[in-house]
Amino acid sequence: MANETQTMTQSMTVSIWRENGDDGRFEKYEVPARENQTVLDVVAYVQQHIDPTLSYRFACRVGMCGSCAMMVNGSPRWTCRTHVSKVVADDQLEVAPLRNLPVIKDLATDMDPFFEKWVAAEAVFHPSKTRHDPMAAITPDDPMRIAASEAIECINCAVCYAACDVVESNPDYFGPAALNRSWSLVNDIRDDGQDVRLAAVGSNGGCHNCHSQQGCVQYCPNELNPTLSIAGLKRETTKALFRRSR
Predict the structure, then answer these.
(1) Would 2-109 and 112-245 be classified into the same CATH topology?
(2) pLDDT tens for residues 146-191?
């Protein structure tokens, strides 16, 4: 780490995507190269000291919310947790909006398509009881509870969605995050929407489009495994198909 930072020059060039209802292009800025700075620090410097019209999205700055996700040298990353010294190449840095999502302006993307696919995948809870009924008792060692727990730490940052080549080639594909959420609900015994959920995730936009390339696994900041969740959905939708054919 010390050697990396020592070899960094006093300044570096950052290429940032600029778009505002046009075709978009990269613009270059010279920014200070500082020890332990993050990519978000660099973007913020450009907005605060060079061009105040630059638009981007962030919130917590401490690696919790995921709202600062952008493409960094071609890879989707949380920019607040990505140190420049780990990704800069020849004193060059490229920052772009998340792939596979419409651009609102510059580095800020429209998240509506991402969340609309959650709805299409029935990745929403269907209660089986009312608030007046006793709460279902679920033990931590229950196999279904364990499977559900392994998938619930998704915070909707869309990094996996941007990393997914299938989403890029097939706009109808629900994507890793929506299907991962569906899998957690398949394993929730309190949920009463399993038939409609399995029909949804087994449809044209569903789990069988996944090629198991595991880009979602590689880049998930919370180290989830959406590919494993999608494999579970493939098994359950196949079982449901055989049940219906009897």
Answers:
(1) no
(2) 988 888 999 999 999 999 999 999 999 999 999 999 999 999 999 9
Q: Where are the domains positioned within the chain?
A: 2-109, 112-245
Using a 10 angstrom Cβ sphere, with 0-12 exposed, 13-18 middle and 19 or more buried, the burial of residue 185 is: buried
Strand ranges (E), the chain: 11-18, 25-32, 69-72, 75-78, 92-96, 103-105, 108-109
For residue 118, which amino acid is it?
A: W
Amino acid at 137: A
d(CA 129, CA 146) in angstroms, rounded, equals 22
DSSP string, 70-110: EEETTEEEETTS-BHHHH-BTTEEEEEPPTTS-EEETTEE-
Taking the C-alpha atoms of 204, 206, 207 and 213 in order, what is their torsion angle to the nearest 10 degrees? 90
Instruction: Look up the CATH number of domain 2-109.
Output: 3.10.20.30
Structural contact between residues 60 and 157, judged by C-beta atoms closer than 8 angstroms: no
| Confidence at residue 6, expressed as pLDDT on a 0 to 100 scale | 46
Closest CA to 150 of 198, 217, 215: 217
Beta bridge partners of 15: 28, 94
Among the listed residues 107, 210, 199, the one whose alpha carbon sits nearest the alpha carbon of residue 161: 210
The answer to whether domain 112-245 has CATH 1.20.1250.20 is no
Position 9 scores a pLDDT of: 53
- C-beta neighbour count of 94 within 10 angstroms: 18
Q: Please check whether residue 214 is in contact with residue 163, taking contact to mean a CB–CB distance below 8 angstroms.
A: no
C-beta separation of 55 from 106 below 8 A: yes
